[in-house]
Fold this sequence. Notes:
heterodimer, B: about 280 residues
Amino acid sequence: MAVDAEQAAAAPGMPQLDPTSFPNQIFWLVVSLVVIYFILSRVALPRIASVLAERQGTLTNDLAAAEDLKRKALEAEVAYNKALADARAEAQKIAEETRASIQADLNVAIARADADIAAKAAESEARIGEIQAGAVKSIEDVARDIVGDIVGAVAPGQTVDAKAIAAAVSARVKG
Amino acid sequence: MATESTNTDSKTGSGRIVFFVLIAIAAVLFILGLVDDYTMDGPNIHPMDQFLIEPLFGTGPIHWYTPTNVTLWMGLAIAGIATLMVMGTKGRAVIPSRSQSMAELAYGFVRKMVEDVAGKDALPYFPYIFTVFLFILFSNFLGLIPTSFTPTSHIAVTAVLAMGVFIGVTVLGFVKNGVSFLSLFWVSSAPLALRPILAVIELISYFVRPVSHSIRLAGNVMAGHAVLKVFAGFAGTLGVAGIVPIFGVVAIFGLEVLVSAIQAYVFTILTCVYLKDALHPHH
Lengths: 175, 283
């Protein structure tokens, strides 16, 4: 306290203007500046600079990698789309071919069936003709018999010419 | 939406913390004011006592080598700088921790300042400029701790800093540019008749630089600290009404926090401007 008072008396007002303390302050300031300068320039600044450079490098690399991946993704998308379009075209083609081959098979089958049907129809028609002819002949036979019988019944004892009856019947049946 | 709300939350949270810290500091100052003014010196206010330089050990005369409170607080500034810049960056992480982030921020801030103001060829002098910046910043902030000592409030300290810059820049100017460094004072863009007059003005302003450079820093810091002490003294003498100066102390303390950072910034950017003149003296 005594020293304080002394100093206060020696430098009334501002201790800043007391020149007896200047050498002390200047000495310790220079020491401090040198110490800080060496701490910074030897340790801190190179370290921070290397960290920042490393970060910059990492960022650049990561960005480049991202760019690369993006490009690859785009390429993959293009390839995918192309493959999809190719597959679609292929499927279209296969479907078309299949349809065409089925159509051809179908046409063949239809033609064969048509031919079968035509053959069967012709055969049936022939048989119908035969049956018809058979029926007409039977009718003529029956008619001839019946005509002979009727003539016998109407004019007994009279012989009837069979040929004449047949001609008359067939003329009637046809007519 | 979520990140926004947490951001604002943390902002108001930290604002509240700062406010309470300021209140606490004001309370400490208040109590110290009471103790100082009543028990030790009577009800007088001694705003300049905080700038006294005292030996750390004993009560001898102060020689140039005596460890004093200057030594202590400069040493604490060194410790703070080493903690932030060396311990803080220990991880060397690509994704930095908080302390490493602060160290990188300070580094990037001053480095960009040097590069933008003084140009790329000033970067070799960046370590010294950064040294000065960190020394002033840490001294100023440590000086805001109540009952602490602030080396940067002393004109002897800031004068050495400013003269170091002045002499260094002048020598550098002549070494880099030779005699053509003197073209700094010859304003070739002005009319020929005006140039001699301008040269005198430029010359005077050049030699006034270290004066303004040093007094600006010491004056700001000293004035703020003295005003804080005066208000704290009022708080001690006014009794219950002392609550009013306590709010004054809080307000001025907030201002002093700003001044501490801004004066470190101003000293550094002026150093960069002077360095630019030395490296590129032609207008």
